[in-house]
Structures are given as structure tokens and as C-alpha cells.
Amino acid sequence: MRLIVPLIVLVALAGCSLLERTRTNFWELERGPSGQAPDPAAAREAVIQVYAARTVGWRGFFAVHTWISVKPPDAEAYTRYEVIGWGVGGGAPAVRINRSGADNYWFGDKPELLVDLRGEVAEPLIARVEAAVASYPYPTSYRTWPGPNSNTFTAWVGRSVPELRLKLPSTAIGKDFLPGSVADTTPSGTGVQLSLFGLTGLAVGWEEGIEFNVLTLNFGVELKHPALNLPMVGRIGPS
Length: 239
Description:
Elements: H1 4-22, E1 47-54, E2 64-71, E3 79-83, E4 95-97, E5 112-118, H2 123-134, H3 150-160, E6 183-185, E7 191-196, E8 200-205, E9 209-214, E10 217-222, E11 227-230, E12 234-236
Antiparallel strand pairs: 1-2, 1-5, 2-3, 3-4, 6-7, 7-8, 8-9, 9-10, 10-11, 11-12
Helix pairs in contact: 2-3
């Protein structure tokens, strides 16, 4: 009972926030900078950041949208990479570049910063991130469920560049869609996972902990920093 009550409260709070967003036309919601990416004019060092934000409309109850932003040393601007489904059916590419700012709100939702690498740590990885983007196997395809989608793309980059130590949230539906395979490393590169078309599977990793995928809904327990991971709610535990 002690656990059930806080869970109900968390779900209710998340639901209220999402309902408020669904009452407003999505194009009228906040899309400006969130202030999490350092100003290129002041921060001359290399930067790699990965973000996650709740998706638009009813899908936001279940899933987040993720993207990657990079800035080489002394660059005057960031390059943002992401996969978006809008327009793909009409011939638009799934992989979009610089559709928005590096850290912008995603239609009213402030993004969560998942990876933040800077300086000498980030600099040698930028070319590898760009190579992973270029080699993404679904550049013209998008499917909301079970994938390939925006989270399939971000997970692909994470697996290609394990030094990012990218741990995607349990709400990143599509991250378990493994291109052309039923087994691979976890997105953080610290474990292994099995997945059947992204619909069901198991992941075990130092960063991810133990995670079960049931029809793309993820249930898990983190071991490195003890916490629960649940569908809709996401991570429950110390920061």
C-alpha cells in the first residue's frame, strides 16, 4: 500500500500536465529554448547532448520523443539530429536536421537532459555520432509503434557510440526495435538485450538494470542507482 499510493499520485500528476497540453492547439505550445544547452558564443568547447520530452497529444501519456544535439569546438551553432514522422508518408525524410534548437521545448514540454558531454570527452565522439546518423538503416521510414521511430534512431546512435553511455527512459517506446536483429547491446553499451520486433524482450545492463518489454511497455529495476522504471510514469527513484 505504501508503494501504490505514491504511484497513483505520480500518474495523476503526469496525467494532469499532459491533459493541459492536449487542451491547447499543439502549434501554440511553448517551443523556445529551455536553457540547458550552453551558449556557443560563450562555450567554445565541444558539446554532445541527448534530450527526451513527452510527445504531442495522447501519445504523450505513454511515450517520449528523443533527439541528439552536437557542437564541435568553436562552432557557432549546434546541429540537432532526430527522426520525425510528420510528412514521411508524403516523401519527406525521416531523419531531420536542425528542425528546431538544440534544447528547445517539445510543444510545451521541457526536455530532460539524458547525456551531457563536453570538452575533450565530447570532441572525438562527434564524428562518430555523425557517422551513426548517416548509417541509420531507416532514413525514409517511420512507424509510431513498435518502430522504427525517433527512439529507434536515438538508440541506434547510442549503440553505435557506446561511450555516450546513453540510458533511454522506459517511456522511450521504439528504443527496443533492433534493426535486422533479435539481439544487440543495450543503448548504453553496458549490457545486452533480446527483442522480437520491439514488441517483447528483455534487457540487462549496468546502466539500464533489468528491463522487461511487454508490447513495447517497459517494466524494470535499476541496479546501479536503485529505482523502478514503469510505463507512462518512467523512472521512480533518487535523481
